[in-house]
Design brief:
The structure is a single chain. The protein is built from seven helices and eleven strands. The protein has helices at residues 14-23, 57-65, 70-83, 128-146, 189-196, 203-217, 223-248, and strands spanning 2-6, 31-35, 38-43, 47-52, 91-99, 102-111, 116-117, 149-151, 159-163, 170-174, 180-182. The strands form three sheets. It has a six-stranded antiparallel sheet, with helices on both faces. The radius of gyration is 20 Å and the shape is globular. The model has no long low-confidence stretch (mean pLDDT 91).
Length: 253
């Protein structure tokens, strides 16, 4: 059984969408951008197709009867982001295939973007250009938090930017949005602290981001940094406890 939902804006392209999906598993079709937990292909610099591959048996059942699939969430959340004034590539369609009413595969198609990742700037020493790009990244995060958006994989590979040739302004887009929670109100301080832990793994840039986040969001100096450090310690303690318990019952050697 197959379920295909197409954005009304792209309904005229239904035949092409079906053709792209039918050819996805052909190794020679498109350009493979990633082939790990998910398979992502670029089709003619016009479309991106993401196949969610590693789905456990338990999750197949959950996605079949209880929760929306990652493909469906990606498609629906793209419009939610846009409605809240946060840009993400157009969601074009999603498809789910089932066997005996149990999820087999799911795909999400979205519009290709020629924006670039913010991530490379956060691996190099600061320059006037990189600081400008990163300050825009910070502004985006502050805006998302104020609008109640908790992107649960908030890292710089999922934030794209482009300098508008006409206005000179830096524009941003958000990717990998299926793990988002929409709170309907600004994030609590604790939610912000946990969310900010992923924004960067370089110590200099992390402190730069947090210091400027504090300024823009109106927090006292050092308040957010201390909150992030406290949450990180709690995460590490919880993970150590989990590891110890697994070791005790023989799940870890």
């Amino acid at each position: 059984m197959m379920k295909l939902i197409i954005n009304p804006k792209y309904r005229k392209d239904e035949k092409m969408i079906r053709d792209m999906l039918s050819r996805f598993d052909d190794p020679s079709y498109g350009v493979t951008l990633r082939n790990q937990r998910n398979v992502i292909k670029n089709i003619d610099d016009k479309y991106i197709i993401k196949k969610f591959v590693k789905i456990t048996s338990a999750n197949r059942t959950i996605y079949s009867f209880i929760r929306k699939t990652k493909a469906q969430r990606s498609y629906e959340y793209a419009q939610k982001y846009k409605n809240l004034g946060i840009e993400t590539p157009d969601g074009i369609a999603y498809m789910e295939t089932k066997r005996n009413n149990i999820l087999r595969d799911c795909y999400y198609i979205y519009k290709y973007s020629d924006f670039k990742e913010v991530a490379p700037f956060l691996k190099e020493p600061p320059t006037p250009e990189s600081e400008k790009i990163v300050l825009g990244y910070i502004h985006l995060i502050v805006e998302m938090h104020a609008k109640g958006i908790e992107h649960r994989d908030l890292n710089p590979t999922n934030i794209l930017y482009q300098v508008n040739e006409k206005t000179g302004e830096i524009e941003y887009q958000v990717l990998d949005i299926n793990r988002t929670s929409f709170m309907g109100k600004p994030l609590t301080d604790h939610q912000r602290f946990g969310n900010l832990l992923r924004v960067c793994y370089d110590d200099y840039w992390f402190r730069f981001i947090i210091a400027n986040y504090e300024k823009e969001a109106g927090f006292p100096e050092g308040y957010v940094l201390k909150g992030c450090q406290k949450v990180e310690r709690a995460y590490k303690l919880r993970n150590n406890i989990r590891f110890g318990l697994k070791k005790m019952i023989g799940l870890k050697k």
